[in-house]
Amino acid sequence: MNKRESPHGDTAGESYWGGSWSSKMLSRPKPGESEVDLLRFQSQFLAAGAAPAVQLVKKGNRGGGDANSDRPPLQDHRDVVMLDNLPDLPPTLVPSPPKRARPSPGHCLPEDEDPEERLRRHDEHITAVLTKIIERDTSSVAVNLPVPSGVAFPAVFHRSQDTQGKSATSGKRSIFAQEIAARRITEAKGPSAGEVVPNLGPPEGAVTCETPTPRDQGCQLPGSSHSFQGPKLVTGKGLRDQEAEQEAQTIHEENIARLQAMAPEEILQEQQRLLAQLDPSLVAFLRSHSRTQEQTGETASEEQRPGGPSANVTKEEPLMSAFASEPRKGDKLEPEAPALALPVTPQKEWLHMDTVELEKLHWTQDLPPVRRQQTQERMQARFSLQGELLAPDVDLPTHLGLHHHGEEAERAGYSLQELFHLTRSQVSQQRALALHVLAQVISRAQAGEFGDRLAGSVLSLLLDAGFLFLLRFSLDDRVDGVIATAIRALRALLVAPGDEELLDSTFSWYHGALTFPLMPSQEDKEDEDEDEECPAGKAKRKSPEEESRPPPDLARHDVIKGLLATSLLPRLRYVLEVTYPGPTVVLDILAVLIRLARHSLESATRVLECPRLIETIIREFLPTNWSPVGAGPTPTLYKVPCATAMKLLRVLASAGRNIAARLVSRTQDCAHFQLSSFDLRSRLCRFIAEAPQELALPPEEAETLSTEALRLWAVAASYGQGGHLYRELYPVLMRALQVVPRELSTHPPQPLSMQRIASLLTLLTQLTLAASSTPAETIRDSAEASLSATPSLVTWTQVSGLQPLVELCLRQTLKLLSRPEMWRAVGPVPVACLLFLGAYYQAWSQQPSSCPEDWLQDMERLSEELLLPLLSQPTLGSLWDSLRCCSPLCNPLSCVPAPEAPPSLVSLGCSGGCPHLSLAGSDSPFPFLTALLSLLNTLAQIHKGLCGQLATILAAPGLQNYFLQCVAPGAAPHLTPFSAWALRHEYHLQYLALALAQKAAALQPLPATHAALYHGMALALLSRLLPGSEYLTHELLLSCVFRLEFLPERTAGGPEAADFSDQLSLGSSRVPRCGQGTLLAQACQDLSSIRSCYLTHCSPARASLLASQALHRGELQRVPTLLLPVPTEPLLPTDWPFLPLIHLYHRASDTPSELSPTDTVGTAMRVLQWVLVLESWRPQALWAVPPAARLARLMCVFLVDSELFREAPVQRLVAALLAQLCQPQVLPNLNLDCPLPGLTSFPDLYANFLDHFEAVSFGDHLFGALVLLPLQRRFSVTLRLALFGEHVGALRALSLPLNQLPVSLECYTVPPEDNLALLQLYFRTLVTGALRPRWCPVLYAVAVAHVNSFIFSQDPQSSDEVKAARRSMLQKTWLLADEGLRQHLLHYKLPNSTLLEGFELYSQLPPLRQHYLQRMTSAVLQNGVSET
Question: Is pTM beyond 0.85 here?
Answer without folding.
Answer: no
